[in-house]
Specification:
The complex is a heterodimer of chains A (150) and B (115).
Chain A: E1 8-18, H1 24-40, E2 44-60, E3 63-75, H2 77-89, E4 93-106, E5 116-117, H3 143-148
Parallel strand pairs in A: 2-5
Antiparallel strand pairs in A: 1-3, 1-4, 2-3
Chain B: H1 2-10, H2 14-18, H3 26-33, H4 52-55, H5 66-70, H6 82-85, H7 89-104
Chain lengths: 150, 115
């Protein structure tokens, strides 16, 4: 086959949540630690994206907010296990999830990108205009009644 | 007993003829039109909904996109069924997976309980 063998790896992304009171330097420290894990396992970090403090849908570690960090990287399957094992060891990480994005990516073809920091998404409107019993059933809830009459 | 009735009004206009004789079930039809989808022509049901992901090929299901996925949740945080959201089977599956992933990351709620 090809004499210069292509190294085909997989592309993964992991999002992890940090406690909202994590200081910035510690966020960086965690980033560097994970970068070290990926390179040790023969992978390559494409970029880290700090998505800022966002409101969570429910309390996470007794907090209504969390710091979201997204990491995009290439590597072999075993890398994810190692990556997640490290996340588990960091106390400030409250939640994480890894997803495979693509198979058979040429590791040398992908360029490393600079880390990004995006502004946290604001809630469109805080849910305070809702008083209990303000309005009845949402149309989407209607089928529940259907089930009842059978 | 409710099932055949539903089928009749969904497929074709024959259900429309039977409609007036069955006023006790009429509320079902009203509800459909109350959804605000110009339910003019077809009796009982509104316009046949199109899968929005099929209609717009550039639209991708993304578990990180809270605003887009919220559309497929009820107020209580349940996933809206296909027959109501209008998604095709493929995209409904993708949406459901995306919502479940978003829930793990606390982007979307598992359930919303009201007082």
């Amino acid at each position: 086959m090809a004499e210069t063998q292509k190294r085909l790896v997989r592309e993964y992304e992991t999002i992890y949540l940090l406690r909202p009171d994590t200081p910035d330097d510690q966020v960086e420290e965690i980033k560097e630690r994970l970068r070290g894990v990926v390179s040790r396992e023969g992978g390559k970090v494409i970029r880290f994206t700090n998505q800022g403090k966002r409101k969570t849908a429910f309390t996470v570690a007794k907090n209504q907010k969390a710091l979201y960090v997204h990491c995009l990287y290439l590597g072999k399957p075993g890398l994810v296990h190692e990556f997640e094992r490290n996340l588990k060891m960091i106390d400030n990480v409250t939640k994480f999830q890894s997803v495979k994005l693509a198979d058979g990516v040429d590791i040398d073809a992908r360029q490393v990108e600079a880390d990004v920091k995006v502004a946290p998404v604001e809630e469109e409107h805080p849910r305070e205009e809702r008083e209990f019993g303000a309005h009845g059933e949402e149309p989407f809830e209607a089928p529940e009644e259907e089930r009842g009459e059978e | 007993m409710a099932r055949p009735d539903t089928g009749g009004s969904r497929f074709g206009g024959t259900g429309g003829g039977r409609g007036p004789g069955r006023d006790d079930h009429g509320d079902r039809g009203d509800r459909g039109e109350g959804r605000g989808e110009e339910g003019g022509g077809r009796r009982g049901f509104g316009r046949r909904k199109v899968c929005r992901f099929c209609a717009d090929k550039t639209l991708k299901v993304d578990y990180k996109d809270q605003a887009a996925l919220k559309y497929f949740l009820t107020e209580r945080g349940k996933i809206i069924p296909r027959r109501i959201s209008g998604n095709c089977a493929l995209h409904q599956r993708q949406v459901a997976t995306a919502i479940k992933r978003a829930r793990i990351l606390a982007i979307l709620p598992y359930s919303v309980v009201h007082a």
